[in-house]
Structures are given as structure tokens and as C-alpha cells.
Write a structure and sequence with these properties.
The chain is of the alpha+beta class. It has helices at residues 16-25, 39-42, 79-89, 184-188, 193-200, 208-222, 229-257, 261-282, 302-327, 330-336, 344-349, 354-358, 366-369, 390-413, 465-469, 473-476, 485-492, 496-499, and strands at residues 6-10, 29-37, 45-53, 56-64, 67-69, 92-94, 143-148, 160-166, 170-176, 291-292, 295-296, 433-439, 444-451, 457-463. A four-stranded mixed sheet has the order 1-4-3-2.
Length: 501
């Protein structure tokens, strides 16, 4: 099992605000907030705050009855977590600047009903009108609004974007998501770890391998399972292949959004080749069901090693041509540079992760900060850009494809012999919990898993990188023209389904 260094602390409610200030001053940043109804054995609701930094995760437990101190004014990254806790548990974050419902449920939902309380009886409240959602307004002469979504012309999922404009420049963008809440956290309660695995891989399908790695890291820690070396290598190979095909697709869509269809189609063809490789390895184009509790479901033989090596060589060749084309085309650079800029300070305040953070100069990469599997054996350095614009996010993806290609090559060359799965009969200790961390193509995937007294799931919380990053686009579009919004959006390429579970 992966060993995550966690400092556990219990703090008093009134002392927490000053503590958060001190944490930020020492370079710590918010990884996630997890609320849990533990009144059954602790008489309180527990709220756990996880702060990362310097290779260690600091956990702070605050016990609450009905109210807790909001930290969002000094830690803006906490704002969405606190709103979510308010919706799902009915706990009130005292001092929160914006307690509008996230729309996890329809607007005619009775918000006195909180589904993540353990005494929730699964009954849907009577449908009636409880009020309307009030959007923020920008007033002044010549100000007008453009509404986009929630239903879009393409096949993407629903999301509502409300622009306030003066002429062409964007003065404000307000995002409203959570149109298809699936209640995954509630559905997982009372299920065993393998049943939940089938749900976890559906959270955000294009990143399912890396999300599953995070979940399994937590579960295997609870069950005291030690993976074989071969299983660790194969998990990493699948994870890096997933990262590569995601980045190839992302760059292709960026080309499409600036009107360069030919290089885009070339990259889409490369993506198709990668997905056919996925199918040859696991029987699934998206690598679904490739991992399981205790190991992996599909081994890699000499023929598969050859196919992987040849494919990633072609990927590197095509991406180098693509990189040269970008750098030598003034038309391409004109569209990418200075567009959708998210500065380092904003990235820090919102605790961004993944490509979005590294493009703004923040060295946030879970593989390096909190090494898991055998990433710690690689001398990995975060690939960083400072400009925080579409160009930085595009160039960063290309550079990281080269890094992933090298990782896969080293893994294939040194692939150890042995079993790919270990048997286990461990029953977890009642109410034992663990966290999982992994680096998806979008950024940090964070799991909190607690077992109940029957060895089933008592509480599961997943925090997708998209949940952290979506608010940043509201800053990235400011001062840009509305026509650049699709490009800015594509350069972040965030998941709707991962955001709204």
C-alpha cells in the first residue's frame, strides 16, 4: 500500500481561522474539505480539512453541531466546499459570503432535507416552489448579458455561463453547474469496496484509471494490502497512457477552436491510434476495468510491450512536429498568447492543481509532491510555465507528453516478473479511514474513504480536480472577448461529470 504522510490534529472551532492563516503563510494549500455525519458514534458532525505542502498532508478535525466557522474569506478555495456542505448536510458556515444553493438538486427541492445526513430516509420531498436562484448583476450604462447553456449545441454535458459585457470585453462571468447531480457519495454508502469500484470508474470516464488509483490507494490502505511490484508498474503504465491520450485530444481541440482543422485532424487520428492501443491492452478503449482491489486485471506481455513502445514513439514524433508548428506560426501564437490568463496569485488563492496550476507557475504535481506507486523512484521535476495563458497550458501538455513517454519507456524496460494481483481476506477495522491521492490529466484526484462496522463504505468523498479549477475560468476570461471563451474553456478542459457527482 502507498504510505501517505498525514499529520492529524483536532482543533477547536474558534481557533481554526487563525490556524488557517498560519498554514497559508507556511506555504500550505487546501487539498479538500470532508464533512461526515458521525453522530452515531461521536455525537457530532465531523469536518476534516486537508492541507498539502512539503510532501505532507495536514489533517485538521473540527467537531460541530449546526454551525462552523467559514474560512472562505481568508481561503477562497474553501468557498465551494462550504456551500456543498451546507446543501448536503444543512450545516451553516458562519460568515460565508455567498450561501446560494449550488443546485445539486432542482430549485423546487425542499432544502430542509439534507441527503448526506445518516437519518435521511431516501424520500424525495414534495415538489413545490421554494424560490429562484439570484444571479450576480453588473450594472451601468451599456452593460448587457449573454447567456450560454445550460444546454449546448455539441455533445458536452450541461453548464450555464452568464457573461456581463461592455462592448466585446468580458466584465464578469458567472458559472452555474451541477445540473446532473448523481448522488454518488450517497449511493456508495453500505456498499462493499468492489461494488464502489464500478461506480468510481464512471465518475469521469476519460480519467478513470488515475481516479481509480486514488480510490484504491485509500481502500488498500484500509485493508492493509501490499501490491506486487509488477502490479505497481502496470498501474503506472496505464495511468501514463491515459495521460498521453488525454493531452493529445486536448491539444487537438485547441487547434479546432482557433480554426486549424488540419493539425487538429492529425491529432485526432493519433488519439484514435492510442484508444485502439487501449483496447488491445484491456479490451476497453477508455481502459475501463483495468484495475481492481489488490492489483490489475490485465497483464502486459511481450507483444503488448512492443505495441506500447512503437505507439508512444509515434506520439512523440507527431507532438514534436506539432510543437514546432505552434512556435513557428505567428497566427497560432496570436490566438494563444495572453489569452485566458490566470495569474499565479489567483492560482494560489483558489488552490489550483494540475496543468492549470503548473501553467501559472505553481509546482503542483501529486506524482512529485506525494509520490505513490513507484513515482518516487523517478527523478521527476514539475514542468512549469509562468504566463498562465492558453499558450502555457497548450505547451505544457506537449512537454508532459514527453515526460510520460519517458516514464512508460523506463517502466517497460524494467518491468519485474511476478503476480499482478494479491488475494486478501482482510476485514477493515470499524470506522477506519484513509485518503488517496493521484495525478490525473486534469490534476489532483483526492479520495476520503471510511469503513463502517460491517466492512462496507460508511463515508466516501471524492474531490475531482475540476471541482477545484472551474471557478478559475471566471478570472481567466476577464478582459478577453467573448469569442475567446471557447478557446479558454478548451485549454482548461474541465469535466462536468467529475465536478458534479
Amino acid at each position: 500500500m502507498d504510505k501517505i504522510l498525514i499529520n492529524k490534529n483536532i482543533v477547536e472551532l474558534n481557533d481554526f481561522l487563525s490556524l488557517v492563516n498560519n498554514l497559508k503563510e507556511t506555504g500550505k494549500y487546501l487539498l479538500g474539505i470532508v464533512a461526515s455525519d458521525e453522530r452515531k458514534f461521536d455525537s457530532k458532525f465531523n469536518i476534516k480539512y486537508f492541507f498539502g505542502g512539503n510532501g505532507i498532508i495536514d489533517e485538521y478535525l473540527v467537531k460541530v453541531d449546526e454551525k462552523f466557522q467559514s474560512i472562505s474569506k481568508i481561503c477562497p478555495a474553501a468557498k465551494m466546499y462550504e456551500r456543498e456542505i451546507h446543501d448536503l448536510f444543512g450545516l451553516v458556515p458562519d460568515g460565508h459570503p455567498d450561501l446560494r444553493a449550488l443546485m445539486l438538486y432542482p430549485e423546487n427541492w425542499d432544502f430542509s432535507v439534507q441527503p448526506l445526513k445518516k437519518d435521511y430516509d431516501n424520500l424525495v420531498p414534495k415538489v413545490k416552489e421554494y424560490g429562484k436562484y439570484k444571479f450576480k448583476e453588473v450594472s451601468g450604462e451599456g452593460i448587457f448579458e449573454v447567456l450560454v447553456g445550460p444546454v449546448h449545441a455539441g455533445i458536452i454535458e450541461p453548464g450555464h455561463f452568464r457573461f456581463s459585457l461592455a462592448g466585446e470585453p468580458v466584465l464578469q462571468l458567472e458559472i452555474r453547474h451541477f445540473w446532473k447531480h448523481r448522488g454518488i457519495e450517497k449511493v456508495c454508502e453500505g456498499k462493499d469496496f468492489n461494488e464502489v469500484m464500478n461506480l468510481v470508474i464512471k465518475i469521469s470516464g476519460d480519467n478513470n484509471v488515475n481516479i481509480a488509483i486514488s480510490y484504491l490507494q485509500a481502500v488498500e490502505s484500509i485493508l492493509n494490502i501490499e501490491l506486487t511490484e509488477r502490479a505497481k508498474y502496470i498501474r503506472m503504465i496505464y495511468a501514463e497512457i491515459e495521460r498521453i491520450w488525454n493531452y493529445v485530444r486536448d491539444v487537438a481541440w485547441i487547434f479546432m477552436d482557433i480554426g486549424f482543422a488540419l493539425p487538429a485532424q492529425n491529432l485526432f487520428s493519433l488519439q484514435e491510434e492510442l484508444m485502439r492501443l487501449n483496447k488491445s491492452l484491456t479490451g476497453q478503449r477508455f481502459l475501463f476495468n483495468s484495475l481492481t482491489v489488490g492489483g490489475v486485471n490485465f497483464d502486459i506481455d511481450s507483444l503488448k510491450i512492443k505495441a506500447i513502445a512503437e505507439t508512444i514513439e509515434r506520439v512523440e514524433k507527431v507532438m514534436k512536429e506539432c510543437e514546432a508548428f505552434i512556435l513557428n506560426s505567428s497566427t497560432v501564437l496570436d490566438r494563444l498568447e495572453f489569452t485566458g490568463k490566470i495569474n499565479k496569485k489567483t492560482a494560489e488563492e483558489l488552490s489550483l492543481c494540475g496543468i492549470s496550476a503548473r501553467a501559472s507557475g505553481l509546482p503542483r504535481d501529486t506524482r512529485i509532491e506525494f509520490p505513490y506507486l513507484i513515482y518516487g523512484k523517478f527523478d521527476l521535476k514539475p514542468v512549469l510555465f509562468e504566463s498562465g495563458d492558453v499558450f502555457a497550458r497548450t505547451a505544457l501538455r506537449i512537454k508532459e507528453i514527453y515526460v510520460s513517454k519517458k516514464i512508460i519507456g523506463d517502466l517497460l524496460f524494467n518491468l519485474p516478473e511476478g503476480d499482478i494481483i494479491v488475494a486478501y481476506e482482510n476485514k477493515p477495522e470499524a470506522y477506519k479511514y484513509a485518503v488517496g491521492n493521484s495525478e490525473t490529466a486534469r490534476g489532483n484526484a483526492f479520495f476520503y474513504v471510511m469503513a463502517d462496522d460491517k466492512g462496507k463504505i460508511f463515508r466516501l468523498k471524492y474531490i475531482d480536480p475540476s471541482f477545484r479549477i472551474w471557478p478559475s475560468i471566471q478570472y481567466g476570461v476577464l478582459g478577453n472577448i467573448i469569442a475567446d471563451f471557447p478557446l479558454i474553456n478548451k485549454s482548461l478542459n474541465l469535466s462536468y461529470s467529475g465536478n458534479d457527482m
